[in-house]
């Protein structure tokens, strides 16, 4: 299996530069003195999440290889859906997005607003339905994480961290399908070899943590993974991303549902940042796990949270 390289990530950075925000590292002065905390706010991207990086790299590569318009097909719980819809619209392409019925409505509507055709499906059916649409349209599939171009696009976050904070000691990255951690990890391993790279998962969807302990991918049921409030972290790694994770991660931290909700509140009240639960897991890990001393970066992967859910989390006194 051929893994993504630092050269792939650098090429991705050049390809997506006109379309993607180079997010800053925000100093969290309310962090611990022995572990200075920096937030990488990917919620500031045009579609509210890091997924825009992989989508623009993958679709940009498609347009370079083909002449004339092509349909793009994707399946996603939300943020990748919006990213593909946005990138496709930018390139003047038609997008067909398959989304699970339990996807928060804010993400479904945002995808439609970007001009994509949205097809809702039952739990566990999104890949099958996407394959059917792919056959109908003769288009190109842009998967949410299981593709080298998507992984390389997400890895551009790692390039930016290495440039802005070369002394980084620890990086905390949300893990679901594994594309984000695979890409960032690839860049950081090459450019900041002293850094400890830690994935973060909800306890209720900790299939990657178990898989890394066992040395092979372990399947968790959709029912089990859907229990977590972090709806963007309910996927499982592919063979490709798991191979990357085995190479680049130093470990996995799991966090509870209460810890995730507390981190969402802390980001709002202390950081003035809106994070969806999936994006707040890294701060939850920073607060509740023994991470190494030194400069720490927490990836805030997205901010597309249902207003009602955010209201409920902020109203919780715990």
Topology overview:
Elements: H1 6-16, E1 26-32, E2 35-41, H2 51-65, E3 72-75, H3 79-90, E4 95-100, H4 105-113, E5 117-121, H5 126-137, E6 140-141, H6 148-164, E7 170-174, H7 179-191, E8 196-202, H8 207-214, H9 222-225, H10 239-248, E9 251-255, H11 257-269, H12 277-288, E10 296-300, H13 307-315
Parallel strand pairs: 2-10, 3-4, 3-6, 4-5, 7-8, 7-10, 8-9
Antiparallel strand pairs: 1-2
Helix pairs in contact: 1-2, 1-6, 2-3, 2-6, 3-4, 6-7, 7-10, 11-12
Structural class: alpha/beta
Q: Which residues sit in consecutive blocks of at least 5 with pLDDT less than 50?
A: none
In the sheet with the most strands, the strands line up as 1-2-10-7-8-9
Identify the overall geometry. globular
Number of strands: 10
Q: What helical percentage do the residues reach? A: 40-55%
Q: Span from first to last CA?
A: 46 Å
Helical stretch tally: 13
Count of all domains: 2
Range of strand content: 15-25%
CATH architecture of the largest domain: 3-Layer(aba) Sandwich
């Amino acid at each position: 299996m051929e893994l993504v390289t630092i050269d792939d990530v650098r090429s991705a950075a050049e390809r997506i530069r006109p379309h993607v925000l180079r997010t800053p590292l925000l100093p969290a002065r309310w962090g611990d003195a022995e572990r200075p905390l920096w937030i990488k706010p990917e919620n500031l991207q045009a579609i509210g999440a890091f997924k825009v990086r992989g989508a623009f790299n993958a679709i940009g590569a498609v347009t370079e290889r083909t002449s004339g318009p092509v349909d793009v097909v994707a399946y996603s719980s939300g943020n990748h859906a919006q990213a593909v819809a946005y990138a496709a619209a930018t390139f003047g392409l038609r997008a067909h997005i398959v989304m699970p019925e339990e996807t928060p409505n804010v993400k479904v509507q945002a995808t439609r607003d970007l001009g994509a055709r949205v097809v809702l499906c039952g739990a566990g059916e999104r890949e099958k339905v996407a394959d059917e649409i792919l056959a109908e349209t003769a288009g190109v599939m842009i998967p949410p994480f299981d593709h080298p171009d998507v992984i390389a696009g997400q890895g551009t976050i790692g390039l930016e961290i290495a440039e802005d904070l070369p002394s980084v000691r620890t990086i905390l990255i949300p893990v679901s399908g594994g594309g984000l951690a695979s890409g960032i990890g690839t860049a950081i391993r090459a450019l900041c070899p002293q850094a400890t790279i830690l994935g973060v998962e909800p306890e209720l969807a900790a299939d990657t943590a178990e898989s890394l302990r066992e040395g092979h991918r372990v399947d968790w049921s959709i029912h089990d993974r859907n229990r977590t409030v972090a709806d963007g972290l309910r996927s499982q790694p592919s063979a490709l991303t798991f191979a990357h994770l085995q190479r680049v991660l130093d470990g996995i931290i799991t966090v509870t549902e209460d810890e995730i909700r507390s981190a969402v509140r802390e980001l709002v009240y202390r950081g003035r940042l809106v994070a969806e639960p999936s994006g707040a897991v890294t701060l939850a890990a920073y607060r509740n796990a023994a991470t190494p001393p030194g400069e720490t970066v927490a990836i805030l992967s997205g901010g597309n949270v249902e207003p009602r859910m955010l209201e409920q989390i902020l109203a919780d006194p715990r």
